[in-house]
Protein: Subtilisin-like protease SBT5.4
Amino acid sequence: MWFPNLSWIVLSCTLFSLFQDPAFAIKKSYVVYLGSHAHEPDVSTADLDRVTETHHEFLGSFLGSTDKARDSIFYSYKRHINGFAAILEDEEAAQISKHPNVVSVFLNQGRKLHTTHSWDFMLLEKNGIVHHNSVWKKARFGEDTIIGNLDTGVWPESESFSDQGFGPVPSRWKGMCDNDTTAGVPCNRKLIGARYFYRGYEAYAKKMNFSHNSARDYDGHGTHTLSTAAGNFVPGASVFGSGNGTAKGGSPMARVASYKVCWPPINGSECFDADILEAFDIAIHDGVDILSVSLGGDPSDYFDDGLSIGAFHAVKHGIVVVCSAGNSGPTPGTVSNVSPWMITVGASTLDREFQAFVELRNGQRFKGTSLSKPLPDSKFYPLITGEQAKAANASAAEAFLCKEGTLDPEKVKGKILACLRGDTARVDKGRQAALAGAVGMILCNDKASGNEIIADPHLLPASQITYEDGDVVIAYINCTDDPLGFITIPTAKLGTKPAPFMAAFSSQGPNTITPEILKPDITAPGVNIIAAYSEAISPTGLTFDDRRIPFNTDSGTSMSCPHVAGVAGLLKTLYPDWSPSAIRSAITTTARTRDNTVKPMRNASLIEATPFNYGGGHIRPNRAMDPGLVYDLTTNDYLDFLCSIGYNQTMIKSFSEGPYECPSSANIMDFNYPSITVPKLSGSVTVTRKLKNVGSPGTYAARVREPLGISVSVEPNMLTYEKIGEEKSFKVTLKAKWPCAAKNYTFGGLTWTDGKHYVRSPIVVAAAAS
Ligand SMILES: *[C@@H]1O[C@H](CO)[C@@H](O)[C@H](O)[C@H]1NC(C)=O
Ligand SMILES: *[C@@H]1O[C@H](CO)[C@@H](O)[C@H](O)[C@H]1NC(C)=O
Ligand SMILES: *[C@@H]1O[C@H](CO)[C@@H](O)[C@H](O)[C@H]1NC(C)=O
Ligand SMILES: *[C@@H]1O[C@H](CO)[C@@H](O)[C@H](O)[C@H]1NC(C)=O
Ligand SMILES: *[C@@H]1O[C@H](CO)[C@@H](O)[C@H](O)[C@H]1NC(C)=O
Ligand SMILES: *[C@@H]1O[C@H](CO)[C@@H](O)[C@H](O)[C@H]1NC(C)=O
Ligand SMILES: *[C@@H]1O[C@H](CO)[C@@H](O)[C@H](O)[C@H]1NC(C)=O
Ligand SMILES: *[C@@H]1O[C@H](CO)[C@@H](O)[C@H](O)[C@H]1NC(C)=O
Ligand SMILES: *[C@@H]1O[C@H](CO)[C@@H](O)[C@H](O)[C@H]1NC(C)=O
Structure:
């Protein structure tokens, strides 16, 4: 009886949606991507205006008039990237996407900054990276290189961007400062560009806080990342007087340009696709050499993602694009920014700690980390857990996490409170403890964070301890009649072991978009990194914290990314002609996979990490200067890559600046990436790679470490180079040793060596399900 009615209901709904009043149709902001422009280098303003006109005409043909199109378009990408951003109805967007000239149409989506918490705080003696004077001298500290970032802007008064000692701005530079005034962001000979892009944010947020209409950094993140990549030497940099040392970026003599695309968070996103694309288009035009991008979203299709498209065009113009892998670890398959033209960076620890021991009355002592002030008196204080201190109306689990409104001040007053990490911000737990009257806090890691401990500028004396230690401390408090404890004064300690290990937050492979491409590519320091900061905000980011400091610490793949950008800057100074992929190859094939205990690098649970955590390994700038051989890639190789994953000629043509024929044999297995990943090995597979000599003439021999259950043969297994620039191909055949081998990923490696250089590539294999 119901069936006829049901079909009638469906029909009537369809009619309703067809005939509804267009005034009620919801408009959203979209990006319409049309591929590349093929302008002459000296393209005129009139030519660029003409491009905008064609965008108006094109959209006008869908909306009914050019005027409507003009109102709807808020960015016309006209220099290198071809496309526009516009306010459209879903139906209009769907129609436009069917047009043969359109590569893709996608929502102007929000992306996140890749910081765990922007108020994370700890101090280090020096700015993050491995230093080596001779190498820095050789690369002239990155002189002549221009490094840009896409971020929250810049604090121009920071000493890290002072132009003392810098010569004239390179004549090839075409960039500028949007608001070159003292109140805005004044350019100088070091900080040579500062622009801001907000229309995409505004289109999403509807309303913009216009007190923020400049490239000035009101957040701290952009100043931190830019100074990590290329901040000046700043001696006597300290945070609250501790950890006094010389702050510096990876390429301290490079010039810098800030492209502000991130604004106060709205629905959890700060940076929007439409702005990101415009920033890329302008940065390519301005003449940056390196772009450092510490933000991202969920992994998505290469041409439905502003960051991926922008990076593609930048790399096509010889710009190295370095991106953060994301902070969604330790879950597998979380890595973002997976485009093969990006350098994707995971995060790991340094060998520096700010140690503050947690001591119990029973004599037990646990090493924690802290940047907080010491306890008022040198005596034992009573201990209580958040669980025990729960307010009558709160749940034990929430109180254990020391969430707002869950603690009973009567119970907490005068005690050291033990809180569990997770769910809420670490500094907020400290704040709740302080509000409830605690004299101190022990922050115990949850299982997922393992051994990754971070020193924060808590509002009260505090120390953060590992998961295992936290278990013991909680058990002691729980099972002792009169539990007492103490937190020692925080003290800087260098050479801690093991280091590096992977940060728990660092996003991991496998790559969910193209599993044949290993991501991340590399890991670099991203835990407790000190760098310049905005003085518009407190180090904790808490509003009632009125402290302002020129240097701050922060953690995240946001922090590791600019380390790699800084090293890429040095390589660019040394080898101006190297392609972005040669630079990536040099960085990844010379990385190390062992820690300072000479054991394989571990994860935050101190279990052996894999290339899905660190790609090639931990960056070694000194070695990257002299890789011997590189796996190079041209723009055509990237086009072939796109052919091999199913993009057809029509689509390829739009971003290849002219006709491009997909080779009939385009095979992703032969894409010359500096790693080998076979996600579904069935029987055997042969992959081809090509190595270019960038060192001295010589003979290299192949050495293989076979993944468990997989046999690997290399043909030829010797490569002789007579001159620089010479390229030689070889084939690697992988075969399962037994029929049901390695259903899960297993890991090995291929190393080419002439006795001086070691050109290492990870091999990652999983057998196809039978
Ligand atoms: C320049 O920036 C300052 C500070 O944000 C702002 O008050 C001023 O309106 C800006 N000027 C222009 C022309 O955008
Ligand atoms: C933010 O998200 C909420 C809930 O999904 C939604 O109602 C709101 O419109 C969003 N805000 C904007 C500016 O899109
Ligand atoms: C705009 O930002 C400023 C600085 O953060 C803040 O004080 C002000 O309240 C904001 N205004 C609005 C309308 O959000
Ligand atoms: C940092 O060290 C320098 C040189 O060693 C010294 O002159 C300066 O006073 C120190 N600053 C602090 C805050 O300790
Ligand atoms: C418990 O009650 C207090 C005081 O009324 C309130 O501030 C707090 O938000 C409440 N907590 C919860 C978890 O409901
Ligand atoms: C602490 O003890 C209480 C009561 O004995 C128990 O319910 C709770 O699970 C214990 N908590 C921990 C973290 O061991
Ligand atoms: C470390 O690796 C082990 C084994 O893969 C995994 O179970 C664990 O969750 C990882 N821990 C972290 C913090 O990444
Ligand atoms: C290429 O792909 C697009 C989008 O999938 C499709 O519309 C078009 O017809 C294809 N062209 C050819 C020649 O196959
Ligand atoms: C693959 O890994 C999963 C999870 O790590 C494990 O449960 C499973 O037993 C493994 N399978 C094989 C064939 O090793």
About this structure: The pocket of 2-acetamido-2-deoxy-beta-D-glucopyranose (ligand 1) is lined by residues 179, 181, 183-184, 213-214, 216 (CB under 6 Å). The chain has a mean pLDDT of 89. The longest strand covers residues 27-36.
